[in-house]
Specification:
about 200 residues; 4 strands; Glutathione S-transferase Yfyf (Class Pi), Chain A, domain 2; globular; binds glutathione; 2 domains; Glutaredoxin
Amino acid sequence: MMKLYHTELSGNCHKVRLMLSLLQIEHERVLIDLASGEHKSANFLEINPLGQVPVLMDGDTLIRDSQAILVYLTRKYEREDWLPLEAESMAKVMQWLSFAANEINTSLFIARLHFRFGMDFDWETAQQKGKQVLQIIDTHLQDRNWLECNSATIADIACYPYVGLAPEGKVALEPYPNILAWIDHIKQLPGYETMPGL
Ligand SMILES: N[C@@H](CCC(=O)N[C@@H](CS)C(=O)NCC(=O)O)C(=O)O
């Protein structure tokens, strides 16, 4: 059975928990205690030398990085509805995975680390960039329900947690009505699973 190494309050881990739940994939969850530094222990560094969660273990296969895990799950279970294989559609979904790992991670993610976990970051810059990120998503969603392909894909799952958790970084979502509607659509997906703050 697949094993997910994760921690409860991580949006990156939540992307994977949500995908596993939406695809109804049976799996085991192993909690890693970041507060006590378990992710930097010798045992865990053998699983992920970066000392980060999430990590998915599938037999001898170890995959780190939430975006990579979303790709792995959808290809392994041949869910082309969640990750289309046609060139343009796939590239457009990948654009959002990259956006989640870069633009969202260096803005909304950082603001939340500061306000939710008390970490010392330049929160003003992070919030300012976060608002630009939200505006880009909101504008993109003005004439569609989903980020790409007229249906839910891993693009939505990759971007969703840290956008939904933006208020924990003291970035309000009210100015972005299309994002609020998109969040509602995601919450109505069969098999949807939540986490604290969403
Ligand atoms: N690119 C990775 C980032 C993973 C990541 O930043 N994980 C955080 C929890 S959300 C973590 O393990 N932080 C501990 C650390 O970096 O020391 C992904 O998308 O999964």
